[in-house]
Design goal:
Helix content of chain A: over 70%
Number of helices of chain A: 17
Distance between the termini of chain A: 14 Å
Oligomer: heterodimer
Shape of chain A: globular
Largest sheet of chain A: none
Radius of gyration of chain A: 23 Å
Strand content of chain A: under 5%
Order of helices and strands of chain A: HHHHHHHHHHHHHHHHH
Number of strands of chain A: 0
Order of helices and strands of chain B: HEHEHHHEHEHHEEHHHHHH
Chain lengths: 443, 410
């Protein structure tokens, strides 16, 4: 194929010119199917910037968590408000971590070429599964102890007095939840470690092709198991907040946020890295364009799934199902939770749909970054909308504790990723598909 | 490039369609295309077996306007779907479904989605064809033997003679400078007839006529009457030659499909000659006792409570106080004209003979419809027994409570 010539595209992007500079070498590598790493001497080590990010993020995380805990204790409500706020923040970061694991598994599964330059970044984010398990503890430990202030099913007395919970107790009980929790996070840890370990081994291996095949073989079963664990985790952490409500689409709804989240976060991470002089030549506008396309696709997918879930419940009009939405339409279009619902409809779908439609927007870093941040905020609002009506039925009780929880959880997550990333090559330099990823162009 | 030559002599130039150059690799093609573009030509094109990366930039092809056409078509589809559903469901033929508003946006969204996609997709396809000038039945290049390998492994570039900058000698030397494998003059097509092939014309006429037939049949069916039954292509159970309840039947003088019993006859098991049991009468007065067929027992009372719960509570409420859900809803709607259900425990009903209560249930009273056709007589008596119990519960004295239980009340 002729795709080895990176310098022949439109030439209107400064990124291209960069690439053409190093491309003199790349062009000569034609035909040698990637056995020798040729990434034009790009910087792939984060070094001191990683250490600095780790320190800053860890500090912010610790401060955030401390403030959140203090505010939670001051509220004097048995940590109920804190637990709900923390659940929102944790699920938002969980969506990102799970999305990263999905993304890495998917790239391996379909033998993707374009994404190789970004794969290691995804792998590092996915490998934060143990950190996520630690971060989950404030939400799940009270469940194990049978005294969660937000999950009624964890409380034996409540279950005894509630007919519906009594029926659901075979699944929703602290012991079985403990088993599931270990299975979820154990599996995610194993799968993400597997990918990161083999990917790193690839860098210095003579059999890079074999390791790629090994990862591809694991990706199929891994993807199935990921889908199941993700779905049931969404049921456990978010859907079971409501004693009565259930939706068989809830897992897919959660998936939409996972995939949108990672495809919004990766371009931001890549821009951050490039500002610090890492991957500046390898990650081009073409890769950003592709991530933007995935953002657009999963913006639509989120709306499609969200509306499918809503319409079936709306049409059937069965009290135990519509109740969940009734609580989220309190206040009509202009106030309370109804305003949040309207904000999600327009802010999470209609506006970004037209915002991300154009090719030019996806090919310009500032505009792409704008929509990436926008959608990450909307994902947070979406989870807030799922969880927070249990804190205040009248309307969103936005408060400092929400910000503190978010800063705390995100800080710890980023610190974990930075700690892992600072001593790694941030690109799988020996992957046989690297040349095609470097030379990748959209038509 | 140089344009200082005198214009071409007409007769020979008319025969020449353009100059074709052949290359071995896509890289050569891109290099050649870059040169031709820089020379300022406009009527020229490149041909390759597969889409060559970077050829758009080399040829200076502008971004297509197709996305804008697609966006417009998508929005048109969206507007069409909204208008169509509003017009059909809530304006032209209002049809209430499941108690939803006549025009319910959520129910319309799937069609809005489908039409948006349909309009976008079809317009994109048609727009792509039109912008590309397709279909293009014949082209002078079809007659060039060498050109056949463009579908296999060769790359071509042709500058048309119709280009303002075209000059046979200069253009040829420009093309030679791009080091092609071969250069050839392409002549205008004088072989292929200009007219469409007769077979194609007749075929199109036949297809067009055939396409009108179903439409014509539909129009005819709407404006004509027929004695024969409608054509039933699929012989399922949809069409059954029988008379359904409450339909018209021209065989009988009164035109009704349902028939009444013959005068002076009674269906088997429907004599109902026991006035006490079936009508609540003893002699000329309302019965004051339960008929012999009704057993005064715990079981009958339980049956009565259950039947009361099914038939009476919607209006009269669980305690018979006239505060059922139907009443509450009517109060909430506050539309006027609502006659509240009776409190069955009030005094005049406490004193009413059971036979008269039975008659009220059987034939209805004031706003209340007749329940005789729905509830068998023994169940009606059981309900009355339960109503009596409810009445007692609202007007009980300490003496009604068994002596042994009285202590727990104080």
């Amino acid at each position: 194929m002729a795709t080895e010539k990176p310098k022949k595209d439109t030439g209107s992007q400064p990124k291209k010119a960069d690439k053409a500079g190093g491309g003199g070498k790349g062009g000569s590598g034609k035909g040698g199917a990637g056995s020798s790493p040729e990434y034009a001497g790009d910087n792939i080590r984060l070094g001191a910037a990683g250490q600095s990010l780790f320190v800053k993020a860890a500090g912010l995380g610790a401060v955030g968590l401390a403030i959140a805990a203090a505010l939670g204790a001051a509220a004097n409500d048995g940590f109920r408000r804190f637990s709900l706020s923390y659940d929102v923040a944790f699920c938002w970061v969980l969506v990102l971590g799970l999305g990263a694991l999905f993304w890495v598994t998917l790239q391996n599964l379909v033998n993707a070429h374009w994404s190789i330059v970004l794969r290691r970044v995804g792998e590092v984010l996915a490998a934060q599964a143990p950190v996520l398990a630690l971060l989950a503890l404030p939400v799940v430990v009270p469940i194990f102890m049978g005294s969660s202030s937000i999950y009624a099913w964890s409380n034996a007395e409540e279950v005894h007095n509630n007919h519906v919970l009594h029926h659901k107790a075979a699944y929703l009980n602290p012991t079985f939840f403990l088993i599931r929790f270990v299975v979820y996070f154990g599996f995610w840890t194993l799968l993400s470690r597997f990918f990161l370990k083999n990917s790193i081994a690839q860098d210095s291996s003579k059999d890079a092709q074999g390791l790629a095949a090994k990862m591809r073989a694991a990706a199929g079963p891994g993807m199935i198991a990921w889908g199941l664990t993700m779905t049931f985790c969404a049921f456990d952490l978010l859907m079971s907040l409501d004693k009565l409500w259930f939706s068989t689409m809830f897992g897919v709804y959660f998936l939409a946020s996972c995939v949108l989240s990672i495809n919004s976060f990766l371009p931001l991470a890549a821009m951050w890295l490039q500002k610090r002089g890492v991957l500046t030549k390898s990650v081009t506008v073409e890769h950003y364009h592709d991530l933007g396309k995935m953002m657009f696709a999963f913006t639509v997918f989120w709306a499609y799934i969200g509306f499918s879930q809503f319409m079936l419940l709306w049409y059937a009009n069965i009290p135990e199902e519509t109740d969940w939405f009734r609580h989220r339409f309190v206040g009509g279009w202009t106030g309370g939770w109804g305003l949040v619902s309207a904000t999600l409809l327009f802010g999470h779908f209609v506006i970004p749909f037209f915002g991300l439609l154009s090719r030019h927007i996806k090919r310009r870093k500032p505009t792409l970054a704008f929509w990436a941040i926008w959608q990450l905020v909307m994902i947070y609002l979406d989870i807030y909308w799922i969880v927070m009506p249990y804190a205040d039925a009248a309307g969103p009780p936005f408060g400092l504790i929400d910000v503190a929880c978010l800063v705390g959880v995100l800080g710890v997550f980023i610190a974990g990723a930075a700690f892992r990333a600072k001593s790694l090559n941030l690109m799988p330099t020996n992957d046989p598909r690297l040349q095609k990823s470097l030379a990748f162009t959209n038509i | 490039m140089s344009d200082d030559h005198k214009p071409q002599a007409e007769p020979t130039a008319a025969e020449l369609h353009g100059i074709l150059a052949e290359y071995d690799t896509p890289d050569q093609l891109i290099a050649a295309a870059t040169k031709v573009r820089q020379a300022g030509f406009e009527k020229w094109d490149t041909y390759s077996p597969f889409p060559v990366h970077g050829i758009d930039a080399a040829m200076g092809i502008k971004m297509t306007i197709l996305p804008w056409i697609t966006l417009g078509a998508g929005l048109t589809g969206l507007a069409t779907a909204i208008t169509m559903q509003w017009w059909m469901n809530s304006y032209d033929y209002p049809w209430l479904v499941s108690g939803k508003p006549l025009w319910s946006i959520p129910a319309n969204v799937p069609i809005m989605f489908e039409l948006t996609v349909l309009f976008s997709a079809i317009t994109t396809l048609v727009g792509m064809l039109m912008l590309n000038g397709l279909p293009h039945p014949s082209h002078p290049l079809d007659l060039v033997k060498r050109f056949a390998r463009v579908t296999d492994d060769k790359f071509f570039l042709m500058i048309q003679a119709a280009d303002a900058k075209f000059d046979e000698r200069d253009t040829r030397s420009l093309i030679d400078a791009t080091s092609p494998v071969a250069v050839e003059n392409v002549l205008e097509d004088r072989v292929t007839p200009d007219a469409m092939p007769a077979g194609l014309v007749y075929g199109l006429i036949v297809v067009t006529c055939a396409a009108v037939v179903p439409l014509a049949l539909a129009v005819k069916a709407r404006h004509s009457k027929s004695e024969s039954p409608r054509v039933h292509l699929i012989q399922d159970m949809d069409s059954q030659p029988k008379y359904k309840a409450q339909r018209e039947n021209p065989i009988f003088a009164d035109g009704r499909a349902d028939r009444e019993a013959l005068p002076g006859t009674v269906p088997v098991g429907h004599l109902n000659d026991d006035d006490h049991f079936y009508r609540g009468r003893t002699g000329d007065a309302w019965a004051r006792t339960f008929p012999a067929q009704v057993e005064i027992s715990e079981e009958t009372m339980a049956r009565g409570k259950q039947r009361f719960g099914i038939y009476c509570t919607p209006c009269h409420g669980q305690g018979g106080l006239g505060d059922g859900m139907v009443h509450k809803r009517a109060e909430a709607l506050n539309q006027g004209g609502w006659i509240p259900p009776t409190n069955v425990t009030q005094e005049y009903l406490r004193n009413m003979p059971v036979g008269e209560l039975f008659n009220s249930i059987t034939n209805g009273v004031r706003n209340m419809p007749a329940y005789g056709p729905q509830i068998p007589p023994e169940d009606r008596w059981a309900i009355i027994m339960y109503v009596r119990a409810l009445q007692k519960s609202q007007a009980a004295t300490i003496n009604d409570v068994p002596e042994s239980e009285r202590g727990s009340l104080k």
